[in-house]
Amino acid sequence: MSGESVPEITIDRIEKDILAIARFGQEEGSNGVYRQGFTKADMAARQWLMGEFEALGMAARMDGAGNVIGRYGPEEGPAVVIGSHLDSVPAGGIFDGVLGVVAGMEVVRTMAEAAIVPEYAIEIIATSEEEGRFGGMLGAQALTGRVTREWLDTAADEHGNLLKDAMAEAGLDPHGALHAYRRPEEIKAFLELHVEQGPVLDTEKVTIGVVEGISGVFKWNCRLIGKADHAGTAPMDMRSDAFMGIADFAHEIQRIIDEEGTDKSRITIGHVALKPGFPHTVPGEADFTIVGRDLDEEVMRGLANACRRVLSSIARKHKLKFEYEEMSWLKPAYCDEGLVQLIDGKAKELGYSSKLMPSGAGHDVQFFCNHTRAGLIFVPSVNGVSHAPDEWTHWSDIERGAQLLFECVLDLACEQAPVAEAAE
C-alpha cells in the first residue's frame, strides 16, 4: 500500500451514528441524555452497538464488565484499541464518550471500503460506567485489572443502589468483571478521541488538542471551627467567624498557584456548608472541599503543603481551629511520548493547528497509561460546555479529529500505511 493516498473518513456517517445513539436515554419532557451506567437505556445502546459491529463484519462481544468490544482484522495477536464510553451523566450531551466509539467505527468502515487489511487487529471498545455512577470507571478499570471483588460487592450510587444489583438487573454477573482483564501484550496501543469538555481549544481557535497526560487530583474535606454568635451583638473584631476563614483562603488560591504551581495547576473550593446556617448567626463552623490538580505529582505536593500552611495561618488569624482529611490522591497519568509525537506530527501533516495540553478531567485512557502505550486526542467544545444538554462540537471539527484518528491508527496497525497527501 506504500505510495497510495490515505482514504478520507465520511462525516455524514459519524453524524448519523451519534444521533442514533443519542436516542437511547432521551426522556420525554426533559433536555439532554439520561443514559447512566447499567440502566435500560445504557444496555439498549450497547446491544445496538453490537449489531452495528456485526454489520461491519467485526467479531462482537460484551465482556463481564459490560464493555462492548468489536474486532477487525487478524483473529490472533495484539490489537490497536480505539476506546471511549457510551454512558452519560444525567441530562448529558450527545458527544461525551460517544464520539470516540463512533469515530472508531468510521475508522473500520473506511479501512474496509479501501480494502486495507491491517497487520494488527483493530478493536473498538465501548467501555462501561465511565461517568462514575458507582464511584469509578468500571469498564476501563476492569480491562486493566484495577477492580476487586470487594469493591464490586460494595460500590453504590448516590441513592444507595448497589453496583452488583444494577449489573445483575442488566443481565450481568458482577464478578464477571474480574474476567475482563486484558494483558498488556494483548494491546499494541490505546487511542481515545474525545471532546475537550473545556474552553481552551475553542477560545484559542485550535483544531486539535494533543493530550500529554491526565492531571493528578487530590481531594480534601476541610473544616474551620470557630464560635457561633449573634450577628447583631457580636463586634466584628471579637468574632471567630468560620466563613471569614474560607473567604481569606479563596483570595490566596491564585498566589499559591503562582508560587507553587504551574499553568496546569487548578485549586477549587467546590462545596461549602455553614453551620448553624442562619442569616442572623455568625457561622461557627464551615465545612468545605478543596480539590487540587496538576500534571506533576511533586507540584501537587507543593500545592497541598501550601494549602495546609495558608489555612493554618488563616485559622490563627481568625481564632479558628483547622481540620482536614485527605479523601483521595490520584497520581497523574502520562500519555506515551511516542504517541504524543505521532498525533502531533499527523496533525501537522494534515495542516491542522494543534496544542500540547493536559486533561484536567478523567478519561478511560488514564487507566491504560500505565498498562500500555496510550494517547488521547481532543477536539474543541463550543464555549467549553459539556455534561449538559447544550454540549456541542462542530461537525467540521469532528471530521478533522476523526481523520487524524484514522491516520494514527493506520500508522500503528499497518506496517506499510498509505501516504498522506500534503494539505493544501
TrEMBL record:
Binding site for Zn(2+) 2: D96, E131, H387
Residues given in the record as Zn(2+) 1 binding sites: H85, D96, H194
Highest rank taxon of the organism: Bacteria
CDD domains reported in the protein's UniProt record: M20_bAS (cd03884)
SUPFAM superfamilies membership: Bacterial exopeptidase dimerisation domain (SSF55031), Zn-dependent exopeptidases (SSF53187)
Cofactor entry: Zn(2+)
Annotated family: Belongs to the peptidase M20 family.
Designated name of the protein: Zn-dependent hydrolase
The organism of origin for this protein: Alteraurantiacibacter aquimixticola
Lineage: Bacteria, Pseudomonadati, Pseudomonadota, Alphaproteobacteria, Sphingomonadales
